[in-house]
From TrEMBL:
<dbReference type="InterPro" id="IPR001789">
    <property type="entry name" value="Sig_transdc_resp-reg_receiver"/>
</dbReference>
<keyword id="KW-0597">Phosphoprotein</keyword>
<feature type="modified residue" description="4-aspartylphosphate">
    <location>
        <position position="51"/>
    </location>
</feature>
<dbReference type="InterPro" id="IPR011006">
    <property type="entry name" value="CheY-like_superfamily"/>
</dbReference>
<dbReference type="GO" id="GO:0006355">
    <property type="term" value="P:regulation of DNA-templated transcription"/>
</dbReference>
<protein>
    <recommendedName>
        <fullName>Stage 0 sporulation protein A homolog</fullName>
    </recommendedName>
</protein>
<keyword id="KW-0805">Transcription regulation</keyword>
<dbReference type="InterPro" id="IPR039420">
    <property type="entry name" value="WalR-like"/>
</dbReference>
<dbReference type="InterPro" id="IPR001867">
    <property type="entry name" value="OmpR/PhoB-type_DNA-bd"/>
</dbReference>
<feature type="domain" description="Response regulatory">
    <location>
        <begin position="2"/>
        <end position="115"/>
    </location>
</feature>
<dbReference type="GO" id="GO:0032993">
    <property type="term" value="C:protein-DNA complex"/>
</dbReference>
<dbReference type="GO" id="GO:0005829">
    <property type="term" value="C:cytosol"/>
</dbReference>
<dbReference type="InterPro" id="IPR016032">
    <property type="entry name" value="Sig_transdc_resp-reg_C-effctor"/>
</dbReference>
<feature type="domain" description="OmpR/PhoB-type">
    <location>
        <begin position="124"/>
        <end position="220"/>
    </location>
</feature>
<dbReference type="Pfam" id="PF00072">
    <property type="entry name" value="Response_reg"/>
</dbReference>
<comment type="function">
    <text>May play the central regulatory role in sporulation. It may be an element of the effector pathway responsible for the activation of sporulation genes in response to nutritional stress. Spo0A may act in concert with spo0H (a sigma factor) to control the expression of some genes that are critical to the sporulation process.</text>
</comment>
<keyword id="KW-0804">Transcription</keyword>
Length: 220
């Protein structure tokens, strides 16, 4: 995750940079504030920490301009404690509002929460390929008027294949995606899940949807 810091106080900017890098975020900082909106849109960060009081234009104005073309999460950082300022920030499209001086653990918690909400919002609810519809939220797959529910692993496999339509997805890539951070997984476990998934697809009349590319992986 890349976080962009837009703060004109050099000491606070450095403090934020160290804090976030120690929390294993990638960090970019702005030190010039003449073309902030253009810089944001060009950099495409995952989240912005935005000071309200900036030299050229306020953080509120910047947020309002960014919101015309981008939904990037924005957290305001400011020494202003007036509740009307907080309301103004939210009305301009801000995702959160933190007052200075901030407690580092609290700031990190707010950042994690905003990123989590943004990630959920980015999940495509329904995906379609060759007349087959995957409903990610409901955990089922549909074709014409029929549907069947999927297990967690079946859903993850199909979702990953939908994300890479037309591409051959290597077996090892699917194994790592399904069982991330587990020390050892029997390679046969993936084959078992693929077989069950194909059987469920057959229940709704979908056959030969998942191709096996021998020695390579799978493709839809």
């Amino acid at each position: 995750m890349n976080i962009l810091i837009i703060e004109d106080d050099a000491a606070i900017r450095q403090e934020l940079k160290l804090l976030l890098e120690n929390a294993l975020y990638q960090v970019t900082v702005l030190t010039e504030f003449h073309h902030v909106v253009e810089d944001i849109l060009q950099m495409e960060p995952d989240l912005i920490l935005l000071d309200v009081n900036l030299p050229q234009q306020s953080g509120f104005e910047i947020c309002k301009s960014v919101r015309k073309t981008s939904d990037v999460p924005i957290i305001f950082l400011t020494s202003r404690t007036d509740s009307m300022d907080e309301l103004s920030g939210m009305l301009q499209g801000g995702d959160d509002y933190i007052t200075k001086p901030f407690q580092p653990p609290l700031l990190l918690a707010h950042i994690a929460a905003v990123l989590k909400r943004a990630k959920k919002a980015d999940v495509t609810e329904k995906m379609t390929c060759k007349g087959v519809e995957l409903d990610v939220v409901r955990g089922c797959v549909k074709c014409q008027e029929q549907q069947v529910d999927l297990s967690k692993n079946e859903l993850k496999i199909l979702h990953y294949l939908f994300l890479h339509q037309g591409e051959i997805v290597p077996r090892i890539e699917l194994v790592e995606y399904l069982w991330d951070q587990q020390v050892f997984i029997d390679d046969n476990a993936l084959s078992v899940n693929i077989t069950r998934l194909r059987a469920k697809l057959a229940e709704i009349g979908v056959c030969d949807f998942i191709e096996t590319k021998r020695g390579m992986g799978y493709r839809i």
